[in-house]
Amino acid sequence: MDRGAGAIEGFIVENLVLTPVPDLPHLTLYTAHPGSGLSRISARGGNRPPYWAYRWAGGMALAHHFIRRPETVKGLSVLDLGAGSGLVGIAAARAGATKVIASDIDPNAGAAIALNAAANGASLEFHEGDITALEPPPVDLVAVGDLFYETALAQKVLPFLDRCLEKHIHVLIGDPGRAHLPRQRLLQTAEYNVADVGSASSSPSLPAWVFALRPGGGTSLSLG
């Protein structure tokens, strides 16, 4: 299978299922199931886990937040950092954001985001690559879902978010309480019960939170 965007889009349409997002049924995502054969992407040279094929709890919390409180993003430009499926950016666009940039290091995520955005009537601009190594783009809000699950990633993301704050860009983080959150710098904004990645349809939902990141004068990852 060619790894071009067209081939990946074809694979997604053929092997993933366009599924309503739990508790947000007016949003739909191409979602993996046990028979999707995602290992075929890795076997043909795709060396990144296909995070874009699933919903994640922090992204779900942010999506709920934007849909239920559209004033959070209405009229604003938004960066969806580590966008994966594009759910957060799609929710922002549907809630009235004027511009949404969906950024991910995986080029295959771009194909998933394009398909998911089209399925939801949303317009997203895809940025491929590690945007945390660059200066923040000219946006009003950065939305960060589920990027604090390992130390190395958190240590890259947090300095970027600090640069965003220095430019007066608001930062919202969605997360179910993973180990590497900068907890001492977070202001809880909302709580939602959502399904995490890999949860069976019969599994109970778990709490996930939306936090505002406060300036901290450092990049400590203390759990506090």
Task: Explain this structure.
The protein is an alpha/beta fold. The protein has one domain (5-213): Rossmann fold. It contains six helices and nine strands. The protein has helices at 5-15, 39-43, 57-68, 87-94, 107-119, 151-166, and strands at 17-21, 24-31, 77-81, 99-104, 125-128, 141-145, 170-175, 186-194, 206-213. It has a seven-stranded mixed sheet, sandwiched between helices. Strand 4 (99-104), helix 5 (107-119) and strand 5 (125-128) form a beta-alpha-beta unit. Helix 1 packs across helix 5 and helix 3 (57-68) packs parallel to helix 4. The radius of gyration is 16 Å and the shape is globular.
Write the layout of secondary structure elements.
Elements: H1 5-15, E1 17-21, E2 24-31, H2 39-43, H3 57-68, E3 77-81, H4 87-94, E4 99-104, H5 107-119, E5 125-128, E6 141-145, H6 151-166, E7 170-175, E8 186-194, E9 206-213
Parallel strand pairs: 3-4, 3-6, 4-5, 6-7
Antiparallel strand pairs: 1-2, 7-9, 8-9
Helix pairs in contact: 1-5, 3-4
